[in-house]
Amino acid sequence: MSLPTSFPKSDIRVLLLEGVAPTAVESFRNAGYSNIQVYDKSPPPELLHQEIAQAHIVGIRSRTHLTAEVLSHGRRLMAVGAFCIGTNQIDLDTAELAGIPVFNAPYSNTRSVAELVVAEAIMLMRGIPQKNAQCHRGGWSKSAAGSHEVRGKTLGIVGYGHIGTQVGVIAEALGMQVIFHDIETKLSLGNARMAMGLDDLLERSDIVTLHVPETPATQGMFGQAQIAKMKTGAHLINASRGTVVDIDALAEALRSGKVGGAAVDVFPAEPQGNADPFVSPLVGLDNVILTPHIGGSTLEAQDNIGLEVAAKLIRYSDNGSTLSAVNFPEVTLPEHTGSTRLLHIHRNVPGVLSQVNDVFSRLGVNIDGQFLRTHPKVGYVVIDVTATQEQAAQVREELGRIPGTLRTRVLY
Ligand SMILES: NC(=O)C1=CN([C@@H]2O[C@H](COP(=O)(O)OP(=O)(O)OC[C@H]3O[C@@H](n4cnc5c(N)ncnc54)[C@H](O)[C@@H]3O)[C@@H](O)[C@H]2O)C=CC1
Ligand SMILES: O=C(O)C(=O)COP(=O)(O)O
């Protein structure tokens, strides 16, 4: 991979996909970036490859898969922004080894997902999906049969992280009993109680809601065996990732009545954009609330995500700070007014730092400040110097020759 050069902001191409919020575009413009390309959906592979090949900064949401193959087209790519929470759609290790930090918005849509889930819990307990469908067909079924208040019912939360805990807090305010299961030991909020494992949670819950990330361990974690452990007629909510649930097993359980109802926001295969068709074995089942992956899609959340992730990308581009990167050594940096800043990203092998320092002493450039952080495979060192542009360019060239160098950049 050829090493990118440092150049004016107007030459830094920012590619924003999947309808990233206008607040992100404004943030980039306000920071002096004018070369911004925006798409309202995830482009098909060929176009994505072409666009990635031109881009220095890429912003995506959950739909665009930045695999090793896609990233290999990003010859100039210096940073990726996931304008969402999940980063499972990005090959984080490949990005790190290519010297590309990835940033996300870990909290900005948490509340939006939690509100939707609690609303769905109420709807499911009242049998609203079926009643709504009947009314739309001209039917009328005024009856209390199978309809319940949520007060006093048990909500089982699988994955008690940011979203899971928020769901629990709101559900408790409605008088629900909250139990949870997580692979980590978690502090219970309010009166929530940890279940004695997933099976225990499934056996006790009137509603089960999933809030795990997509990982090798969570893919397919909810299938026939887990459904069999649920109370007959209990409900399932999935606003995590589509791969977590065996959707055919769920469809079957919804038809048989083993699962009373479901609210599903995420699917193993989702359309690329709004004009593309949606196909799922759950389509046509009256006892299911289907939503098009909009758990985090509120204007409040999207505006905040746009600001938050754009700010992180701009900070990295302008200042070199990798604070809160999800795949990269985190370096927090002061401003560098009055000095030139060099960034050196390298494989974390013995001897690189001494070779870096050697370049400065050989070229007679004094170091004003140095910041280093390492991960097992990658090291990131930032060096502030007082140097002319010519000296900085010369240093950078020499730094690029050090074996193990992944990327260098100069911030004037
Ligand atoms: N539908 C939508 O629009 C949205 C979906 N999401 C999804 O929700 C997921 C969760 O988001 P957050 O709560 O912010 O993440 P988080 O990282 O704060 O919480 C996830 C929790 O799941 C636990 N966990 C991981 N593997 C597990 C396993 N095998 N079994 C049980 N627990 C496990 C973790 O220990 C953690 O406590 C995201 O990764 C994303 O995929 C997030 C935002 C919007
Ligand atoms: O934040 C997440 O992880 C989500 O799933 C939301 O994704 P989106 O930005 O709506 O494509």
Automatic annotation (TrEMBL):
Pfam families: 2-Hacid_dh, 2-Hacid_dh_C, ACT_AHAS_ss. This is D-3-phosphoglycerate dehydrogenase. It comes from the Bacteria. It catalyses: (R)-2-hydroxyglutarate + NAD(+) = 2-oxoglutarate + NADH + H(+); (2R)-3-phosphoglycerate + NAD(+) = 3-phosphooxypyruvate + NADH + H(+). Its EC number is 1.1.1.399, 1.1.1.95. Catalyzes the reversible oxidation of 3-phospho-D-glycerate to 3-phosphonooxypyruvate, the first step of the phosphorylated L-serine biosynthesis pathway. Also catalyzes the reversible oxidation of 2-hydroxyglutarate to 2-oxoglutarate. Residues 341-412 form the ACT domain. The keyword Oxidoreductase applies. Pathway: Amino-acid biosynthesis; L-serine biosynthesis; L-serine from 3-phospho-D-glycerate: step 1/3. Keywords: NAD, Oxidoreductase. GO terms for molecular function: phosphoglycerate dehydrogenase activity. Belongs to the D-isomer specific 2-hydroxyacid dehydrogenase family.
